[in-house]
Amino acid sequence: MPPIHILGIESSCDETSASVCVDGRILSNVIATQEVHQAYGGVVPELASRAHIQHIVPVVDSAIQQAGISLKDLNGIAFTQSPGLIGALLVGAGFAKSLSLALDVPLIGVHHMQAHVLANLIEDPAPSFPFLCLTVSGGHTQIVLCRSPLDMEILGETIDDAAGEAFDKSAKMLGLPYPGGPLIDKYAASGDPSRFHFAEPVIPGLDFSFSGVKTSILYFLQQATRKEPDFIQQNLADLCASIQHRIIEILLKKLKIAALETGIRQVCLSGGVSANSGLRKSFTALGERQGWKAFVPRFEYCTDNAAMIAITGYHRFLAGRFEGLDAQSSARGHWTAEG
After folding, report:
1. How many C-beta atoms surround the C-beta of residue 109 within 10 A?
2. What is the pTM assigned to this prediction?
3. Closest Cα to residue 329, out of 169, 110, 177, 32?
4. Which of 9, 42, 288, 297 is most buried, by CB atoms within 10 Å?
5. CATH match for 128-296 among 3.20.20.80, 3.30.420.40, 3.40.50.720, 3.40.50.300
6. CATH superfamily of 5-118+302-318
């Protein structure tokens, strides 16, 4: 059987990325990051869409060249179909549809969160099935049971805010510039995680909640700065360490329960927040204590990237899961994890 070449395209938010996957092996992964949003304290959807239009042709061309193939070698075009910023998604979808039509190859729609989970299959050592995956991003927090690349079940998810949002909103309360989540991680490295204590939500089952944590942090900071205006600046490292500790503790406590309930001992981490060094260290340490085989993708496969779209597209190609040119992109795109 000739090798299967899949081009993956990711454009859900503020990274334009393209990747080539051949028989499940990533040959290239090119990412263009948009720095224009830093001046606005967050991603501006209209500016994101415009930047995707500017970046997508050179990014795809670079991915093809780095892979050492030509467009005519491609067997399928995979693209992020949902969720994300609708204008940003439409740029990637429109390009993918045009290329699929021009090359007469299948079009493969990919859900962004399924792709984050399968990022764990990109490099060896990779988990074998079944495995659990804690997927943590700016918009999602989920515990997923993975029986095969296309057979997944969401065991628990956030009922309000995601962990990534909790990091970013907390950073904003501390007066840190956008993107604030990585800065909390940076300052936390030199802080005392036990110095300050914030509320822990009591949520039954395997679901998460972070809205109460954010409120607890907000009220604490308001009271502290009323008494001492320079409180945040004088205690920044300890505040970051304490905030990060609480968020990570909530995440890993639920993951530990899921592993005990299912009896599964292969456990993975994925999503943009899995790039957080504190979470990676705590996850690995918990895995050692629990006797898990613990897996964390390399940094470049944690944040938004097309390699995870390409490898998911490869598995969907093998299963014949294709889209027509009338495929609709969705900003929310609820994922039932049914393949």
Report:
1. 23
2. 0.94
3. 110
4. 9
5. 3.30.420.40
6. ATPase, nucleotide binding domain (3.30.420.40)
**How many CB atoms within 10 Å of residue 232?**
16
List per-residue pLDDT tens for the chain, 339 residues long: 899 999 999 999 889 999 999 999 999 999 998 776 666 667 788 888 999 999 999 999 999 999 999 999 999 999 999 999 999 999 999 999 999 999 999 999 999 999 999 999 999 999 999 999 999 988 889 999 999 999 999 999 999 999 999 999 999 999 999 889 999 999 999 999 999 999 989 999 999 999 999 999 999 999 999 999 999 999 999 999 999 999 999 999 999 999 999 999 999 999 999 999 999 999 999 999 999 999 999 999 999 999 999 999 999 999 999 999 999 998 765 555 555
- The span from the CA of 308 to the CA of 319, in Å, is 17
User: Fold identical between 5-118+302-318 and 128-296?
Assistant: yes
